[in-house]
Amino acid sequence: MAMKRVATSAIRAFNSSGIPSSSSIFTRELHATPGSKKIVGVFYKANEYASMNPNFLGCVENALGIRDWLESQGHQYIVTPDKEGPDCELEKHIPDLHVLITTPFHPAYVTAERIKKAKNLQLLLTAGIGSDHIDLKAAADAGLTVAEVTGSNTVSVAEDELMRILILVRNFLPGYHQVTTGDWNVAAIAHRAYDLEGKTVGTVGAGRIGKLLLQRLKPFNCNLLYHDRLKMDPELESQLGAKFEEDLDAMLPKCDIIVINTPLTEKTKGMFNKEKIAKLKKGVLIVNNARGAIMDTQAVADACSSGHIAGYSGDVWYPQPAPKDHPWRYMPNQAMTPHISGTTIDAQLRYAAGTKDMLERYFKGEDFPPQNYIVKDGELASQYR
To answer: Taken in order 267, 272, 278, 281, is the CA torsion positive or negative?
Structure first.
């Protein structure tokens, strides 16, 4: 019953704001033309886990919980996990689909080539947050609308980041592995386990997730720093106990722990390369739930092997799913997971409700909530410029 109440409240929240409609200046209108639409969703396959929780909506089998609704209105709804290569299931539907729904957790990479082939495509929806799996410039040039469910999993990701910080600081994983292998060696854990209190934590990016993380870190009595393109309101800064650092290169060497909370853009791609990492404090801990491509893959692996990075944790990789030979799988002092931080059941309920809300608006010819747009009328959202 509790989860049903969450689902109901999430749907009400996303349906509460009415935004006046406006028409696009491009040939591919945002608003649906009359008639049946072909909607394709790309999600991960859950297999036996799909039936274990009725609110597990983000998988192929449960398809965001919108199949019956869409089909009752005469629309065609196709879902698949098969998204790579010229013969994949997604590729077969590219020429005549109208709407493509995908997630950051099992991203369908929407390239300029795919956009060119998709003659009927009008709308690209991300069920979640983060639309960098789409060639946004190509989408803008083609007059497409790109939108995501802003705010749907910010709490989920911020909580996960706090967990990862503690896992690294306390050297938790080696202790867990000792228990599962029948060992008992306190010294092997304690020689690199610390308190979080008193440490300097810096977030690179202080948007919705970054602010929530800072809020959750305040009770730990850390020295909190943040770098962002926008400075917070002084009152909020005071509430969070965080100090603004305008110069990223000046902030990074001060940090015992660095958390990546910036979107992946042309400016941030490969930002943490060999040279940038060399400037970090020796023994730094890094948490990255933003995007794997912000980091230079081999530079991170080398720094973990040398000990310059004392611990690296995150759930984002490039590409995704990560290949079996990805070096982060095998580097020392890592606490990596598949991309899971933003797809808790609570988050799934929110981003499923948000996706349904935007589809309803699309069919009715109404605009989306402004914060959900990533590309609109040929313009990219400010965070992607």
So the answer is: positive
- Confirm if 229 and 199 have CB atoms less than 8 A apart: no
The residues annotated with a catalytic role in the active site are 153, 291, 320, 339
Query: What is the model's pTM?
Result: 0.88
CA dihedral over 335, 320, 264, 64, signed as positive or negative: negative
Q: Which residues pair with 224 in a beta bridge?
A: 201, 242
CB environment 326-342: b (16+ within 10 A), e (fewer)? bebeebebbbbeebebb
Output the CA–CA distances (angstroms, integers) from residue 380 to 32, 55, 383, in the order listed: 21, 33, 8
Model confidence pLDDT, tens digit, residues 83-141: 999 999 999 999 999 999 999 999 999 999 999 999 999 999 999 999 999 999 999 99
Whether 365 has a pLDDT exceeding 80, the answer reads yes
Q: Residue 81 and residue 109: Cα distance in Å, rounded?
A: 12
Question: What letters, b where the CB count within 10 A reaches 16 and e where it falls short, cover 259-284?
Answer: bbbbbbbeebeebbeeebbeebbeeb
* Structure confidence at residue 12 (pLDDT): 42
